[in-house]
Every structure is written in structure tokens, then in C-alpha cells.
Description:
Number of strands: 13
Number of domains: 1
Strand content: 25-35%
Number of helices: 7
Structural class: alpha/beta
Order of helices and strands: EHEEHEHEEEEEEEEEHHHH
Distance between the termini: 10 Å
Amino acid sequence: MRRLLVLQHLKIEGPGLFEQFAKERNLKIKIIRLYKSENLPQTKKGDLILIMGGPMGIKDIESDRYPWLKLERNFIKRELENKIPIIGVCLGAQLLASAAGGDIEVLKYGSPLKALPEIGWSQIFLDKSNKDFKELFEDPFHVLHWHGDRILLPNKAELIASSKRCKEQFFKIGDFAYGLQFHLETTREMIDKWINENKEFIFKGLGSNGQEILREETKKYCDKTFKKRKLFISKLFELLEN
């Protein structure tokens, strides 16, 4: 892979650890700021597309507020057909699934069920049939969740890992695309910005003391999981280079 093409939907949701890893591998990094109406890239053999998260969603595709969303989904569909490697994170995973024929619905939890975002650090669990990521899950693996929807996977998708709250956390489409509902890429600095700028969403998911809960969880897990998250990214790049 010669280039990492990053599709970014919001300034504070950048590539983070993916960018660090790409620099270590001497990949050329090109960030396309779709929220600034920058043009989608022309891809070539050797490229890897990384699709980041954002507060908008699949249901906003026809919205005048995000005119680039529909173009982006069409772009993803075309690149899937062209077998260009893709990693989708959170919104990126939702767009990837949608481009392949899937959908989303509001994530619900509790009894009776009610709309409740999954926010904070919690464990994900590997499907026992998966061998590629087995070593990373030999010990409990906690990741950061920050979403209010769940993905309804297309028939062609292979589910790889789930959380207790949301089944569709990590999946594969064909041999060239992976979707991650959770966030591997986050640094302490990124999470601090998210906590400060998403008070209403955090309140909805965690209650009035949600910001403090997230700060405490981040102290506990962010540095502790750093090495494993980098290994996870390394494995994704390795699989998509083959």
C-alpha cells in the first residue's frame, strides 16, 4: 500500500493512531475533509481507504445538511467493486455496510427497550470461528464506544466481534473491507475533546455525571490498551496488504 486515504467527516474525529501507524510504515497520508466539501479521491492500486466517524448517520444521506454523504456512499460502493482495501470506523463502518446492502437502526437497551447510546470503554468478544484476531483476544479487550445506532449487516458480511450491548461491533465484507463500530484510533487528547464537546450525547447515554465517568474510564483503559490497539491496526493493515 502506498497511500492512506482518510475520509474525515468532522475536525475532531481524525485518524489518530491510524495516522501514527501509517507514518511508521512510510505510507503517504492524504486526508480528505468532506465536511469542507473537499473532493473524493481518485484511487489507484496500492491505496487503503480509511473512513472515519462523525455525528451524522445513514438516515442523513438525503439531508441537505450533508450533501457529500450520498456521494461518499456511492464512492464506497464503487471501491468495494474495485476491491480497493477499506477500513470503516463507526460512521465509516455504517457507510461501508450500507454501501454493501446493509442498514442501521437506533440502538436500544433495557427492559422495556429504549433508545440508549453505547458510550464508554467496555469489552468486545471475538466470534470463536475467527482465527485472524484470536491472539488479540486471549486477554479481555476493552475499547471505546461512542454511537447511538447499530448496524444491520448485509448478507455478505462476516461478523467477527460483538459487545454485550451491540452485536455488530466488528465485521468483514469480502477480502478487502473491515468495519469497526468502536474506536481504536483515539488518543487521550482526542477523547478529552470529545468529552468536552459532546455533553448532550454523553448525558443521553450515561446520565448527568457521564463526563466524569468517561474521564475515569479513559484513565483506566486508554494507556493500558495502547499497545493492543496498535497491534490491532497492524493486523488490519497486514490482512489488507495480502
